[in-house]
Amino acid sequence: MFSYIVRRLVAAVFLLLAVSIITFMIFFLIPRLAGASADDLASRYVGKTAGAEQIHKQAESMGFTDPLYVQYGNFVKGIFVGADYSTGVGTEHCPAPCLGYSYQDRTSVTQDLKDRLPVTFSLAIGAGVLWLFSGVAIGVLSALRRGSIFDRAAMTVALAGVSLPIFFTGLLSLSIFSYSLGITAKGGSYTPFTENPLDWAGDLVLPWVTLAFLFAAGYARLTRAGMLETMGEDYVRTARAKGLPERTVVTKHALRSTLTPILTIFGLDFGVLMGGAVLTEKTFSLPGLGQYAIQAIARNDLPKLLGVTLLIAAFVVIANLVVDVLYAVVDPRVRLG
Amino acid sequence: MTEILDDAQPAPKPSGSPFLQVKDLKIHFPTDDGLVKSVDGLSFSLERGKTLGIVGESGSGKSVSSLGIMGLHHGTSARVSGEIWLDGDELVSATPDFVRRLRGRKMAMIFQDPLSSMHPFYKVGSQIVEAYRLYNDVSKKQARQHAIDLLGRVGIPEPAKRVDAYPHQFSGGMRQRAMIAMALACDPELLIADEPTTALDVTVQAEILDLIRDLQREFGSAVIMITHDLGVIAELADDVLVMYAGKAVEHASCQDIFKHPEHPYTWGLLSSMPRMDRERQDRLIPVTGTPPSLINLPPGCSFNPRCPYCSLTDGKSVTEVPLLLASGPGEHHAVACHLTGAQRQRIWSEEVEPKL
């Protein structure tokens, strides 16, 4: 078990390294391959009236004239020990872990991400808990009462949930619950949990439910299919043959096996969501990582984009790692492999 | 282990009826293609300490009837009718919860494939403990000790260590032993073994059969041994029930089944079994044809399309369903066949027996 975790950990570190190299290359190598020179890249960071001389100076000060591996080395170095960025009027120190410096806003990308992470995390954790529990519960009930009215209704709603995009359900629920009925927050506001937990939940309840609806639908279908399969397994028959009450057979024996694949998918979904639920944050005007990424793209702010991409990738890798470890906890057969 | 021995023989209920009696058991499954009559009018009885062997091809209704006795068809589409009397209680009309409470304690089952029949996520020990603590109000530690004792009793080496292993860490034979230990956790009075040796190699098969026999002696349980292997029957059974297409076609003592079998299907089974104690012949003689569809059974005797002696019955075989009637010299030998007793005796001694 211990060696399994260590192996997964080492693999995750290498994966992160590879991800950072690939991300870096997408932003710095591909423009070069497309024919952009160091000066072309630097021209974005100077005023519109700047001459060629000025641009070249800027390119040199930003390190664009260095070989690519030196640039990458400096970037990684920044993550571990911090970096200094010259802003023209002075130097700005960016402490480790430094994911970059936005020349447009004159802010540290790390600090930006730190500010926005709680929003995205709050959104993801609330929605995640909601959709996991409701999805699995509905799936189990549907499987146990296959063909019943409950099953048919649940599966129809689930189909709707999977097919309706968040910008539709989100806007619809905003219109009904916030604007017509006035019972939920109108979006755009976020209160940190540490300030007022009730307001925190109040601001987020609509995004949670809307996002959970989208995911719960898939989880309900998945759980239902898994349960139907597991209930036919020989070991469930054995559990019945022992004389166990049906409730124990379902929860302890059947559900345990059904949950394993669901846990895997949950980990990945959660990891992706942590990287920013772009549509949800946009719909509800939440200042999270997804909004940040959209702004960075819209304004062509390369350091921000690089930083947020790396962070998202890191979340997915970490989620994968957690899932791998959880898998070994849940399924003893995995530990040997 | 003495504690198990002491509990082994519960006082039988004061009644003259057999410990287990199955009367006209029918288990039908409605499907889109029609009604599948998996078991159609099965009757037999069994006393404590005795072993009934049920033989037949795949699909003859052996497993379905045993699952029916265990009440494990509840919640499926199966339609169960008839009577199952177990120690004075009728199970078909009883509530599912009543039958559920008998499972594990009064009757237990050993399944065919021990790998898929044990939960892959739980330790072998905790699966036994689970069964034991269901009916015995003991501490986890005591239950664990009981599990270790049982594992030792069924011949698993180093039971104190193996109790914490997972099923996938066991070999096939060990798994079947653990499965048996699990079934025996609450000293069941009726043990149903559904092809317990089919998934095992021959040397392990013999050990498992010995084990079941020893345990039966020790616990005084009634055993139903389901198999398609006549060797297993010869080894263990007191009585034998031969099933074909959901019906019993022959019911006799083990001795009679091998010495004076009366049903052409039983002859077929015997002829297709390799024998080491006879001169080797060029070929075994298989039963020709394939098992019938359980939705569209042949009219009359279900075996008639495959029966080489069908023409000797003046067409009765294709029109009339034969009843299971007492026959022959054996004390409780019964056979469902339209051939006359004399015909059967002649065919067996002149045509079938010499070729075995």
Short note summarizing the structure:
The complex is a heterodimer of chains A (337) and B (356). By secondary structure, chain A is mainly alpha-helical.
Question: Which terms summarize this structure?
Answer:
heterodimer, A: 337 residues, mainly alpha, MetI-like fold, 2 domains, two-stranded antiparallel ribbon, two-stranded antiparallel sheet, 14 helices, 4 strands, globular, B: 356 residues, alpha/beta, Rossmann fold, eight-stranded mixed β-sheet, four-stranded antiparallel β-sheet, disordered N terminus
What do you see in this structure?
The complex is a heterodimer of chains A (337) and B (356). In chain A, a hairpin with a 4-residue loop joins strand 3 (101-102) and strand 4 (107-108). The model of chain A has no long low-confidence stretch (mean pLDDT 85). Chain A is mainly α and 337 residues long. The termini of chain A are close together. The radius of gyration of chain A is 25 Å and the shape is globular. Chain A has helices at residues 2-33, 38-42, 52-61, 68-81, 109-144, 149-163, 166-180, 197-231, 234-241, 246-274, 278-283, 289-298, 302-330, 332-336; strands spanning 83-86, 91-94, 101-102, 107-108. Chain A is 74% helix and 4% strand. Chain A folds into two domains: 2-107, no CATH class; 110-336, MetI-like (MetI-like fold), CATH 1.10.3720.10. Chain A has a two-stranded antiparallel ribbon with strand order 1-2. The longest helix of chain A is centred in the middle third of the chain and has 36 residues, at 109-144. With 356 residues, chain B is of the alpha/beta class. Chain B has two domains: 2-237, P-loop containing nucleotide triphosphate hydrolases (Rossmann fold, 3-Layer(aba) Sandwich), CATH 3.40.50; 242-355, P-loop containing nucleotide triphosphate hydrolases (Rossmann fold, 3-Layer(aba) Sandwich). Chain B has 14 helices and twelve strands. In chain B, the strands form two sheets. Chain B has an eight-stranded mixed sheet, with helices on both faces. In chain B, strand 1 and strand 2 form a beta hairpin. The termini of chain B are far apart. The model of chain B is unreliable at 1-14 (pLDDT under 50). Chains A and B meet through helix 9 and helix 10 of A and helix 3, helix 5 and helix 8 of B.
